[in-house]
Amino acid sequence: MAHAYERLNEVPRPVGRTRALRHLTRSLDALVASHSESYTVAGRVGMLLQHALADPLLLEPRHCEPWEDRYRPHLVHTHPAGRYSIVALVWKPGQATAIHDHRCWCVVGVWQGLERETSYDLHDDDDDGEPYLVQRSSAVASRGQVSVLVPPDEDIHCVENAGDGIAISIHVYGDDIARLGSSINREFGDDLVRACAVPRSAPVSWRTYGGRY
């Protein structure tokens, strides 16, 4: 199956046009102009995004359209210098991401519907020394709820539509998605997940393993 972000970097650099998006991007522009530390920026982005999610006219109708076969990303806005990007992800029931992590900080807020995030830890204490994933948590988020991810913290997760209707979430990424094409750093195969495993040691970083999986 084709990657949902495929060819997203070929979309002309967009500018948010709704009143709510213009207000949000003005605040984000001021934030990234005055701060550069990832945890500080991402935390404040979360507060700004949570306020914006309350506006029912946040997105243009064209940014609410799904795909039939996989979740659909809409590149809504990019900072003129690429300091951040805003992407709307639209999900039909049953659609989900692969297990993945991110190349930059990411702030996610649900604007419509329900989304389930399942997080994983990477372990390497098996007898054969090969890495495997164990589910750490799973939670359903509804409209207005926000989560923050800041690499290099371990942020391995997958996201899926947890409801019966269309779900739409707003993702603010700390990089230029118009140039990169995707925020995803690495995908992890479902075969790495061990549903009943009881780890014998603390989680490790996937960076230890390079391309071994």
Strand order, largest beta sheet: 1-2-9-4-7
- The appropriate CATH architecture is Sandwich
Total beta-strand segments: 10
- Name the helicity range: 10-25%
Quickly name the level 1 CATH class: Mainly Beta
Q: What's the overall average pLDDT, rounded?
A: 89
Could you say which structural class the secondary elements and strand pairing correspond to? Answer: alpha+beta
CATH homologous superfamily identity: Jelly Rolls
Which of globular, elongated, flat, extended, rod-shaped describes the shape? globular
What portion of residues belong to β-strands?
25-35%
Number of helices: 3
Radius of gyration: 17 Å
Q: What does the largest sheet look like?
A: 5 strands, antiparallel
Describe the structure concisely for a colleague.
The protein is an alpha+beta fold. It is built from three helices and ten strands. Helix 1 packs antiparallel against helix 2.
